[in-house]
Structure prediction request, 406 residues.
Amino acid sequence: MATAADLAFDPWDPGFVADPYPAYTELRARGRVIRYEPTDQWLVPHHADVSALLRDRRLGRTYQHRFTHEEFGRTAPPPEHEPFHILNDHGMLDLEPPDHTRIRRLVSKAFTPRTVERLRPYVHGLANDLVARLVEAGGGDLLTDVAEPLPVAVIAEMLGVPEADRALLRPWSAAICGMYELNPSEETAASAVRASVEFSAYLAELIAARRERPGEDLISGLIAAHDEGDRLTEQEMISTAVLLLNAGHEATVNATVNGWWALLRDPGQLAALRADHSLVPSAIEELMRYDTPLQLFERWVLDDIEIAGTTIPRGSEIAMLFGSANHDPAVFTDPARLDLTRRDNPHISFSAGIHYCIGAPLARIELAASMTALLEQAPALTLATEPRRKPNFVIRGLEGLSVTVG
Prediction:
């Protein structure tokens, strides 16, 4: 059985983080499932397997709906991490049926396609304003000037977070998302716990205010959502709001800067996009495939499964490598090439199965709005300085993307 000990796969190596895709090629050649001792996980690098496992009910984002920690052969999180886990474990991303089904159904009553579509003019107006300021300044940091403020403002507007409080959201989100990296440090955990406590307290106050004075926002919709007497609990509302904020902007921020960094390194594809703005929809899908914002997604093995003759026992953890799956030549012709006209593009950047990203339609609207605004208002956008990668592997992004527009 292949192991990863002698491979280039190393989530803590800056060289690997800068460009993990050659290591993925090596992993896929090694086999369909590879034991990786440093994280006590089974790596799954092929598209067909990742796609199938995302839909396999023998796997779960949690195991606590069926087993205690002891029954599952796992150790309970330390008590000092409890505020993070209370917040995280009541969000639908980390639940399984029947709780996941109930919460997603109730959230869907508030997070409707009509609600999302109603935001389109606001998203495009905000994107145009942000890019106009960038152009007026002659350039700046695409990350902090456009990529971050757009989705943060949009999800805050949806939730009904007052404008004066929105600067709090991104730091809380960044601290919480640090726990999704592999083997997070105690310092990372402590930051996540503090952010969980502060964010939860803030949202509890906001929910109480909306109970008194309901509005047209998503929090008011979550309070009102019911189904045959079923309602979201207070904790479920708080966890849902945090999940929608974190998931509602982290991927969009990183897809924006990863995408523009890829375009700025491929003058031919960038020129084609500038010449034909109708390519924007397919460009967004291709850029999310080409440099995947979420590189890895974990699942617990609830019942023994077999992959390519290897039995993976109950209690194991599987790490599905989205970045590798999105570069699998069995599915994507010439996957290392950026092709904005790629039509057959079944990337899995938004996941699949019951945990498919509920915010995917909104993310696509945001990405299209910022890309179109930049193409129209900054047609001569160029790189000012070479960007640095964030040290994170799982959530893939840049420290910044400095550009000039004249």
About this structure: The first strand starts at residue 34 and ends at 36. Residues 14-404 form a domain with the Cytochrome p450 fold (CATH 1.10.630.10). The two ends are 55 Å apart (CA to CA).
